[in-house]
Amino acid sequence: MSAMQGIVIEGTGGVWQVRTPDGTMLPSALAGRLKQEERDFVKLAVGDHVTVEPEERGQGWRITAIAPRKSVLARREPGGRYGERVLAANVDQVCVVFAVANPEPHVRMIDRFLVVCEANDLEPHVVLNKVDLVADAAMIDALAAPYEKAGYPVHRTSVKRGIGLDELRAVLHGKVTAVAGPSGAGKSSLLNTLHPGVALRTAEISQSVNKGRHTTVGAKLIPLPDGDEGYLVDTPGLREIAMWGLPAESLDQCFREFRPYLGECRFQDCHHEVEPQCAVQQAVESGKVDRGRYESYLKLYAELRASERPR
Ligand SMILES: Nc1nc2c(ncn2[C@@H]2O[C@H](COP(=O)(O)OP(=O)(O)OP(=O)(O)O)[C@@H](O)[C@H]2O)c(=O)[nH]1
Ligand SMILES: [Zn+2]
């Protein structure tokens, strides 16, 4: 047998499960040469695309090459002292799932999570679930509007009535997707309806910017069944990626709809708070940027600044 290509879907105790395109699982160990080259920031992670070769003796496989990553889901350490801890590589997108009712959606929390996605270069999809619980479609449209206006895809779904499920299935198809959202939003129900048998340890979104927990997170990739070629990222702690280490100064970049105005402010180091001739504030005044989104920015900016102050 010769070299094969695959994707790392799980790792425990130095044994990595590499899945080939036909679904075969190859238990593999990192080749000695790669181990030596390995530094904190290039550690093998689930989602890595690798080349494996059969061991000369025995039945195992050796990982002999790691392809360059196109994205990294990482937890930045406060102050950046220990570099990043990579939870998963090559994650394509995040489905941020909220219920339109029961529990009530918390829009500031949606904004917070979109910032986390932007900071990690992950493509967010907003999923508004339980649309069966709100009879007034205009209310749902009002909830979706700021996100649609900012350029995010918004999907309206109901597990109960079977609304929007084909659309969401198409979003997951062929992609590596992380799913996040508050408890009770219907994440498990959605995934189980789309792909029966798929179970995730989904995570609640942390209310606080920097209040992450130092627990160990073993992420896994779950192949979607039925030859779908997509994967779900299973991590019990998406809260771990929070916004640790995100400099307050780069928060404005994480509000996608602000970007056309950045650099247009009078002051180069404008925080878009109270400064005169601020292009972002002007965009809010003229209705080009949603005021609620801007208020989220102000709140998160203040939080990030507070956490940067020396103790
Ligand atoms: N009416 C209605 N109820 C739903 C819908 N989707 C899920 N539910 C219900 O909402 C409750 C919570 O759903 P879960 O799928 O457990 O929510 P979750 O987001 O996985 O929650 P955690 O596991 O706590 O993170 C369950 O009682 C579901 O039956 C929906 O589209 N409409
Ligand atoms: Zn400004």
UniProtKB/TrEMBL annotation:
One GO CC term, this protein: cytoplasm
Protein name: Small ribosomal subunit biogenesis GTPase RsgA
Matching Pfam families: RsgA_GTPase (PF03193)
Positions of Zn(2+) binding: 265, 270, 272, 278
Naturally occurring in which organism (per UniProt): Pseudogemmatithrix spongiicola
Cofactor binding note of this UniProt entry: Binds 1 zinc ion per subunit.
Function: One of several proteins that assist in the late maturation steps of the functional core of the 30S ribosomal subunit. Helps release RbfA from mature subunits. May play a role in the assembly of ribosomal proteins into the subunit. Circularly permuted GTPase that catalyzes slow GTP hydrolysis, GTPase activity is stimulated by the 30S ribosomal subunit.
Taxonomic placement: Bacteria, Pseudomonadati, Gemmatimonadota, Gemmatimonadia, Gemmatimonadales
GO BP, sorted A to Z: ribosomal small subunit biogenesis
